Amino acid sequence: MHEGSCLCGAVRFTVGSDLLPPTACHCTRCRKFTGHYEAGTDVPRSAVSIHGEDSITWYHSSDKVRRGFCSICGSSLFFDPLHLDRIGIFMGAFDTPTNTNLAMHIFVADKGDYYDIADGLPQNPQ
User: Fold this and answer.
1) Which residues contact 109 (CB under 8 A, 6 or more apart)?
2) Is residue 65 part of a domain?
3) What pLDDT digit, counting tens, does each position of 71-102 carry?
4) For the segment 13-24, what is each residue's pLDDT rounded down to a tens digit?
5) Is residue 113 part of a domain?
6) Which SUPFAM superfamilies match (predicted)?
7) CATH code for the domain of 18
8) What is the C-alpha to C-alpha distance for residues 89 and 76, in angstroms, rounded to an integer?
9) Cβ(18)–Cβ(87) under 8 Å?
10) Residue 101 neighbours by CB under 8 Å, 6+ apart
């Protein structure tokens, strides 16, 4: 069981499955949504229980994806591809150890110019 929350605690969640190795997304939308790049893992919707859903605001960043954040403290929490049976959870929102390691970087062609990626992991331009 993995547990997580937003900064103020109004939104809490549990994940009742193992976590896949997270990816780091450097696309412009993820950078703007999180303030840096985003690291997240995908889990089956059926494995997630969210408490405080009334405090989540969903921003539809495209026709296919919405992004969830706490409407009280602003914490970025979820990446929700509407057409799939999974939801992305941002690694920084977990309160308990995840027992994972970053697997790869994606959309590195869009990364910010103020940092380098030097961890030796695979880097996909898109």
Assistant:
1) 125, 126
2) yes
3) 999 999 999 999 999 999 999 999 999 999 99
4) 999 999 999 999
5) no
6) Mss4-like
7) 2.170.150.70
8) 9
9) no
10) 21
